[in-house]
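S1.2 Input.
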Amino acid sequence: MHNGYLLPNQYVDQVINGRDYCAEFLKVPVELRGVVFLYLPQTIQKQVLKKISDEKLVDLLRYPDPDDITDIIQGLSFFRRKKILSELEGGMAKKVADLLAYPSDTAIRLTNLDYVLVDLGIKFKDVLNVVEKHKKKTGKDPVVLAQKDGIFVGEIPVSAFIRSNLDDIIDKYVVKVPTIFYHEKQSKIIKLFEHNKHNKIIVLDKGKAIIGIIYSDDVFRLMKKQRARDLYGFAGLKQEEDIFDKFYIKIKNRATWLVLNLFTAFLASLVVALFKDVISAVVVLAAYMPIVAGMGGNAGTQTLAVTVRGLVLHNIEKRAFFRIYFNELLAAFFNGLIVGIVAIVLAYLLGASLVFSLIVAVSVLLNLMVAVSAGFFVPLFLKRIGKDPATGSSVLITTATDVCGFFIFLGLASIIFL
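S1.3 Output.
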């Protein structure tokens, strides 16, 4: 039994740990179901939507804001979504339908429409009248935004109502708030929040008139999805997969990349086979091959993470392209020197000759530079051809570092020892 005092995240835990997700979800107080639903894993969301009746779905949709309703029902079939919208109150249904008309990765899809708009030049007592009317109509305290000649100017913060008199003009109390145009990508929203301390962003149309507001909680949820997307991409998994998927869905999502990885592993083994004579002559080479390849793989993954983040936040521009790459390459060179010196010492202490230790060190240094180049260029190439720069990049980078690492290490050994 729920005691009526649980927080939304506690209800989320109860739904996830229940045997029947939909039955457990329906135990959540109806006014909290929308919030709880949005924080459930995607697989569980789908199962809840599949089992929940239209009547109960409409009931829970009476409480969230239009942007959250959009997130909840966008996974429904066209005909069921149309039916649900017809059951909503007319004004709300239109707002949701308008939001659904835009691509899911644009700023407007996160837009909250709960605000009041006032013109510069009016008094605070007039603003309070507008706020009171809105509250009576919606039951919510709105954000107060100001405009001049139909163009957004700024926000009137709550503190202004405390510091001002009722007969004061609002103009000097208006504060600037970051803005974004409705059609821009959601990745730009993340960048705006990282560079501004405000807890909201105003969404504008092409004429700079106000459409709505994006709040920090929606951005945090977006950032969480983005982090999961990048993490899944590094591992060669589909973004839609999560821990609650059935085994056959996991097979479908993972098999392609695993088969590709198998082929790349065979490619690395072919390179090793080319140097079977030197490996037979200097057997200890086999013990050091994983070190050279492993160090390259780690460096490549580090560069990949930085590059993908730069692409997501639009920090990598053409004019800065070579400067960023040279900076990464320079870091790889000096890191290679440091790691190489340590490798010389360790290999020598383990009984290797000084010449052999130098070969290990030079191979590690060169492979680190190969790894950084792969970590930088692979995601850029994938983006260039229209693919997700995160998806499967790690497989391609591991191939580059294994193949090149083995070739450099065994090639140098062949020159010196044969």
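S1.4 Remarks. The chain is about 65% helix and 5% strand.
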